[in-house]
Amino acid sequence: xxxxxxxxxxxxxxxxxxxxxxxxxxxxxxxxxxxxxxxxxxxxxxxxxxxxxxxxxxxxxxxxxxxxxxxxxxxxxxxxxxxxxxxxxxxxxxxxxxxxxxxxxxxxxxxxxxxxxxxxxxxxxxxxxxxxxxxxxxxxxxxxxxxxxxxxxxxxxxxxxxxxxxxxxxxxxxxxxxxxxxxxxxxxxxxxxxxxxxxxxxxxxxxxxxxxxxxxxxxxxxxxxxxxxxxxxxxxxxxxxxxxxxxxxxxxxxxxxxxxxxxxxxxxxxxxxxxxxxxxxxxxxxxxxxxxxxxxxxxxxxxxxxxxxxxxxxxxxxxxxxxxxxxxxxxxxxxxxxxxxxxxxxxxxxxxxxxxxxxxxxxxxxxxxxxxxxxxxxxxxxxxxxxxxxxxxxxxxxxxxxxxxxxxxxxxxxxxxxxxxxxxxxxxxxxxxxxxxxxxxxxxxxxxxxxxxxxxxxxxxxxxxxxxxxxxxxxxxxxxxxxxxxxxxxxxxxxxxxxxxxxxxxxxxxxxxxxxxxxxxxxxxxxxxxxxxxxxxxxxxxxxxxx
Amino acid sequence: xxxxxxxxxxxxxxxxxxxxxxxxxxxxxxxxxxxxxxxxxxxxxxxxxxxxxxxxxxxxxxxxxxxxxxxxxxxxxxxxxxxxxxxxxxxxxxxxxxxxxxxxxxxxxxxxxxxxxxxxxxxxxxxxxxxxxxxxxxxxxxxxxxxxxxxxxxxxxxxxxxxxxxxxxxxxxxxxxxxxxxxxxxxxxxxxxxxxxxxxxxxxxxxxxxxxxxxxxxxxxxxxxxxxxxxxxxxxxxxxxxxxxxxxxxxxxxxxxxxxxxxxxxxxxxxxxxxxxxxxxxxxxxxxxxxxxxxxxxxxxxxxxxxxxxxxxxxxxxxxxxxxxxxxxxxx
Lengths: 547, 332
Known about the structure:
Chain A is 74% helix and 1% strand. Chain A is mainly alpha-helical. The N and C termini of chain A lie far apart (54 Å). In chain B, the strands form 6 sheets. Chain B has a 6-stranded mixed β-sheet with strand order 8-7-2-1-21-22. Chain B has a 6-stranded mixed β-sheet with strand order 9-10-13-18-20-19, covered by helices on one side. Chain B has a 4-stranded mixed β-sheet with strand order 5-4-3-6.
């Protein structure tokens, strides 16, 4: 029976239309890859048991995914109400005021645009290229590959390669969003999914016994501890791999996961101005939720690996020794990392190369999003006259080229600093955890949005949803705020990466606060300067009540 | 509320201008426009085109006295006059028009597109009359200069309403003095779009209109070109390329499925700016191309538009006797 087309209920005049080009599917890819889906397995499966040995990973994963739905909902409400590029900067300036938004965003820009840019390039080299060369060398017996791995690990060689990776990515981004979206759609995302499939397939095709036998072979080849001795060795060094779960470690793992899950919504929100259907609440929320679900599935596979395939006690002991006793474990696993570990079941060189390429697809996106996000932030600030006009220059491809080259230019210069002075790099690493605070502020902004921006809220898609008489975004925002505050405070007071943790972590957090203070001074200075030229910055965001 | 500024500076007295565009029938945006004189402390208020909305939402009277409409994918049943008024208000905020009819009327609209256009023009005219009256009542006593011009999407019928007001000035194909030093030449036409709108022209026709208008300026170097369509390839006109061999036009994609972007602005406008080099160019038309561009000594702006979200994008310009002292984009 044929179906009749639905009858028109709304009629359009013959008039021009507005069309955006980035699809929600691209948005899902963007969110999943920005959260480092596949590479998240590094933290979750390979390092997680060593950092948080008593964590219940399933509970941490479920807790994070479920509660992040509240965060995604708030971002979707804000994004569909204000579908323009700029993300947290736009939301916070409009709800709290320009001082707040500028201050937090500039601090985030420094860490994200300069440190993360370097970190992503460095991870590609140190976490993928070098270990891949080494695995090829060990497996084929061709020592030239091992020498190549050692060569690209030298500081004098790392520096130009990292610089080249950053500059190359900047060049691609200066040609507009389109080339990046193509690379994301046809390489990064398929590679990530293939990587997850390969890992899942290894569970099916290679038994635990095969895995342990292959690991023994590999450890023998690289001069590491035999797998049969790992647990006993760890015990002799004071670690109990059979200890029960603790809430502290589970929450600690959740904090680590949160640090990945925030990128699902935070990064795509920076490009809402380029996203189709950005004004549709359900579409945007669906986009975030789908990316979050993909993350959950990725980590679920990691869970099966850890608990069922490798075995929790062994994984805990191995990971703990990677983190705390690398010399005793041998085999240089701090260098090899999760991609090498995941090749062990097959011990097949072609699968190894394929896995590394998959990880490359997943990791390389981080390099691009550290350019996309900060440049869009600077563009928004330039339009608001908080930054000089030249930072808002856009080329024919629609790329904010001045902001892009400013960001990567400094990142390239800082590469030398980070490589020669790794202590500084470590400080920046710990300061980046403060980005949880930035997302927390946006969630609070969303919670109070119906009152702070009443007229914008009332015409937004979210206004039709209420729970017990209060706006649904407020009800959900309260849950999201409670969750994010818990994560942020747990981070702040964690014994490893908080104020009471390692020296570098303490310095990192203090550095983050100092950045915010410097940015606040910058804001006051910008406001004063603009006022002297007849511009009142506060007018950019002043509420104009309708007549 | 912003306190009054000392307008006299070392650069002499100044004129503050607020420019917005492409409100597309949004009651919310227009009512904010009425308040910006007070909030931003400006002397001149300009809407640079595309005043009319795009969407007609029929609301059908049912036999039991209630009303039915479908809006944003939801069926709404309205049982009281208050609910009807609230819905009219909500739909109007986003720039759409509510059309009260019965089931026969709805069928007529479905079967005859020319009827849709006729109904739309009627509703547009009605709203425009209301807006002009509001502007006269609210802004007339303030002495502020109010300039509202049509754009390429606007039916010719609204020009009569704009021209009939003694508070609101219509700059379309006219020269208006915004202060004693600066003239503004207005043009609401655009180069041909895939939708072939009411005021779309060929580039030659546009060139001719500009050629007739600009010579009327007394001091072109100190003037403002308020041309609705931006100059071509200026970054104020970037949008996806459309295939207009089908209706509605669809985005042209390359082999990899990505949209092709291009500068859709007018070459005639660009030539005029390059030739005459006015002080400023104020443009709209491409909602997503908010920005600033310099063509020689001329600074061109497009404040963008998000009328459907109830957000009034604008631009505050501070003009001295012979220069642009400052500018800032606003988001209300």
